[in-house]
Amino acid sequence: MLSVVSTPIGNLGDITLRAIETLKKCDAIVCEDTRVTGNLLKQLGIGKKELISFHGYSDEGKISFILERLKRGDHLALTTDAGTPGISDPGFAIVSRAREQNISMEVVPGPSAFLAALSGSGLPINQFVYLGFLPLKKGRKTLLESFGKKERTVVFYESVHRIEKTLSELAQSLRDQPDRRIVIARELTKMHEEFIATDIRNLPDVAKKLIKKGEFVVMLGTP
User: Fold this and answer.
1) Do 92 and 118 share a domain, yes or no?
2) Looking at residue 135, what DSSP letter applies?
3) Are 156 and 131 in contact (CB under 8 A)?
4) I need a surface site. Which of 154, 161, 193, 194 has the fewest CB within 10 A?
5) Whole-structure pTM value
6) Are 81 and 151 part of one and the same domain?
7) Do 5 and 78 touch, CB atoms closer than 8 A?
8) Crossing angle of helices 91-100/60-71, nearest 10°?
């Protein structure tokens, strides 16, 4: 059995009772960073567990090892460092292969940064497109320019190191839509959670004044 378990994105109180029970009873936990997951277990008062690291640099051999454990009847929980596994992390590779091999699976839903941001944005979210992290080079300019024609809310993640540059590039790409709304969320569920609402016209100034701390969720409203 593979249990796909969502974990808090900041506030420990967002862990679900079902997630705690699953982490307690599973045989081992597949996680991005064993230190992060080990600390989570400690905070939840869960005893020591076997932790299997699986991250962006893990090879095919690690996937095969995990699948073999599942085939022989082990109950493994799949987590990410924060939020829902498979969203902007390598967990999808395990889930995909497990589906192909008809391995029993369950999903234990919970926190997700981009969904939390959208729900508090005030932007239309009956339809939206999620892009994860934008490409650093190839196709980046073309992608940003394509936002001008998007008829749905666009949401993506950005790091603290690139947020000002990305917002400045976005403002330049959409300069012919100065009134278009944009909302930036940071430090979601944490003490300094913040939503900044503005428009393309004022975005360059907002970008310069942003507190450069934490991870950001950027949401662009419809034209």
Assistant:
1) no
2) P
3) yes
4) 161
5) 0.91
6) no
7) yes
8) 50
The pLDDT > 90 percentage for the chain reads: 88
Same structural domain, 16 and 99 = yes
| Nearest Cα to Cα of residue 124 among 146, 87, 154, 144 | 154
- For residues 96 and 133, what is the distance between their CA atoms, to the nearest angstrom? 21
pLDDT in tens, 43-88: 999 999 999 999 877 888 899 999 999 999 999 999 999 999 988 7
Last residue of a domain, one of 89, 108, 127: 108
Task: Indicate the residue among 51, 86, 108 that finishes a domain.
Answer: 108
Residue 68 parent element (H or E): helix 60-71
Domain housing 57: 2-108
Residue indicated by tokens 């995990």: 66
Check whether residue 127 and residue 215 sit in a common domain.
yes
- The per-residue pLDDT for range 17-40, each reduced to its tens digit, is 999 999 999 999 999 999 999 999
Q: How far apart are CA 175 and CA 46, in angstroms?
A: 52
Query: How many distinct structural domains can be found in the chain?
Result: 2
**Which amino acid appears at position 31 of this protein?**
C
Q: Which of helix, strand or coil describes residue 48? A: coil
pLDDT digits (tens, 9 = 90+) for 151-204: 999 999 999 999 999 999 999 999 999 999 999 999 999 999 999 999 999 999
| Statement to judge: residues 137 and 210 lie in one domain | yes
Distance CA 38, CA 35 (A): 5
For 112-129, the DSSP string reads -HHHHHHHTT-S--SSEE
